């Protein structure tokens, strides 16, 4: 199972690398729900997330998330202590703090230009993040971290980019003619294809077949006037005559 999880995570990471220019160190924004689930499942965020990705990562949080965990009180006291261990990424809500989910959404924006990964257990936030293209989503399934496969929004946006890069046949032709007109490429001379002349039949195939009947007839033994071959008659001596001859000797 570890090999399967590793292959899936690497496949998802390669998708975001190739299509959205993600690179190491990966920036993972963690909220209070993820930290709370990590305590319940005895999951070490600082050590196990880099080993899961097999890459260097920066685990970050925001001031709004820390303040949200502080307001919730003793129930999430452990999650608050964990969030305070991570580097705090500045957000735009210093004067007017907002909830953790709203803060993370504002950090992502419309296109996730800063290339953040979101680590959360909040189902509502997960649904909203899936609608934004180019946002990797990380959550805990028990004590196992899971990097979700790319959402439909991410796949569609990547396909549109690929379609824009690929030129049609007509576009390739127009580009070629423009290059020839400007002198960037020498025009290709059209080669005249010579037609092949029809050749006559092979003279060897036109030779007449030799008749071997005369040779066969010459090798036959001479026949009589009637055309039949004479056979030599053999006279057989009877057995009792042979016995008389033997006794006389």
From TrEMBL:
Gene3D superfamilies: 5'-nuclease. Residues 194-249 are annotated as: Disordered. Keywords: Nucleus, Ribosome biogenesis, rRNA processing. It comes from the Eukaryota. Its main location: nucleus. Residues 194-210 form the UTP23 sensor motif region domain. It holds the Pfam family UTP23_sensor. Residues 229-239 have a biased composition (Basic residues). The keyword Chloroplast does not apply. One of its GO terms (biological process) is rRNA processing. It is found in: Nucleus, Nucleolus. Belongs to the UTP23/FCF1 family. UTP23 subfamily. Involved in rRNA-processing and ribosome biogenesis. This is rRNA-processing protein UTP23 homolog. It comes from Aphidius gifuensis (Parasitoid wasp).
């Amino acid at each position: 199972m570890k090999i399967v999880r590793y292959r899936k995570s690497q496949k998802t990471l390669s998708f975001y690398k190739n299509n959205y220019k993600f690179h190491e160190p990966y920036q993972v924004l963690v909220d209070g729900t993820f930290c709370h689930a990590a305590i319940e499942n005895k999951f070490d965020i600082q050590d196990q997330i880099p080993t899961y990705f097999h890459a260097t990562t920066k685990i970050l949080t925001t001031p709004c998330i820390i303040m949200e965990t502080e307001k919730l009180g003793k129930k999430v006291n452990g999650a608050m202590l964990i969030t305070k261990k991570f580097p705090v990424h500045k957000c735009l809500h210093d004067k007017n703090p907002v909830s953790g989910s709203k803060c993370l959404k504002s950090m992502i924006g419309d296109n996730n230009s800063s290339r953040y990964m979101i680590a959360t257990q909040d189902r509502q936030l997960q649904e909203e993040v899936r609608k934004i293209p180019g946002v990797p989503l990380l959550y805990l399934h028990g004590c196992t971290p899971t990097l979700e496969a790319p959402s439909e929004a991410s796949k569609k946006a990547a396909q549109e980019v690929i379609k824009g890069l690929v030129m049609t046949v007509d576009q390739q032709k127009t580009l070629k003619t423009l290059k020839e007109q400007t002198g960037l490429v020498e025009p290709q001379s059209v080669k005249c294809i010579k037609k092949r002349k029809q050749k006559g039949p092979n003279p060897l195939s036109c030779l007449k077949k030799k008749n071997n009947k005369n040779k066969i007839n010459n090798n036959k033994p001479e026949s009589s006037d009637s055309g039949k071959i004479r056979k030599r008659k053999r006279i057989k001596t009877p057995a009792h005559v042979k016995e008389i001859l033997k006794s006389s000797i």
